Predict the structure.
Amino acid sequence: MVECKFGNYSGKEFVYKDRNLKAEILNFGVDNTRKRLIILTGIKNIKNKRDKFVTIFDINNEKVLH
């Protein structure tokens, strides 16, 4: 379970950018203990519905883990 403790974020530095340009970040959470981002993205399919994907990103190593 991911619980967000803030309402917005303002910054000009990229931490994560999806490889697929059609992907839209729907939601995200931060695991401060392990320094990871849990990112929910969606890509509209041909039926105009969203296929959803979860990405786990390691902040320290700047790598996608899964």
About this structure: The chain is about 0% helix and 40% strand.
